[in-house]
Amino acid sequence: MNFGAFARSLTRLYSTSSIEGLTAGESQLYNKLQKAFDPIRLRVADVSGGCGSMYAIDIASKSFEGKSIVKQHRLVNDLLKEEIKDMHGLQLRTSSK
Length: 97
What we know:
Elements: H1 3-9, H2 24-37, E1 41-46, E2 54-60, H3 69-79, H4 81-84, E3 89-95
Parallel strand pairs: 2-3
Antiparallel strand pairs: 1-2
């Protein structure tokens, strides 16, 4: 299943307009990404059933303009490298718009 189909199947997605109801893990990732990238769009969801072992992140930021998808993903992965160590997986979607 591709990220788009998977993301649409999620019942909980969070945007930059509200972080109410985030789990502790989602909130930690959300706040770190928000501070580093000042995103236009940011969605963070624990897709592991609540245990925090897998997350889906959808982020759009002007910081990514002119960068390839690989470079955009590297920026996010570098920022979250400590958190990623404890994850089973990370689904990442980035864009500049």
